[in-house]
Amino acid sequence: MTALPDRTQLQASVEALRRDRGAALLAGKPFDDRALEAAESKLEALDDAEAEQGRRQIALARAAEDERRAGVRETIAALDAKRLEALKEAEIATKRLAAALEEHATLAKQIRFSAMSLGLPPLAVLEPREIDVRLSRLFAAVIMPGDWRWGVLERNSLPDGLDGDWAERERKATADAIAELH
Q: Which of 17, 124, 150, 162 has a 20 to 30 Å separation from 178 between CA atoms?
């Protein structure tokens, strides 16, 4: 970009030429307006150049903002795709969890009925309600660490120490009852 002339110098030149024209008119002398017109023309050209420079800067700023906004939109689209993929993974994992818990419940039921076929009293620790309470606490401890809410689920009175191996916790909870069957 070409360097623009100094505005102060051009304005001073125009003012000096106007003073000279006024002095010539007062003195009754002729004045050649071409120098003044040329200086005023340069000043007008500087006005035009500065205005164009401002428009270009605005256009560059708009282009940069448009580019930034397009980048943010791309980021949002990428994040949204990842978010939906994470939800799909959660759905698959939840369905696997539900199937595994259903299998667990079926096997517990088979153990209860097998124990009763031996003439033993029903195993309370393998009753569906007992199992549901134990496993729901384990599940809540995983999805809601700390003491807080998640949607319609609430974790407000879970005992501490629910982390760790679920199968090992369940083995410990049912070990005495199962041992009686051997």
A: 162
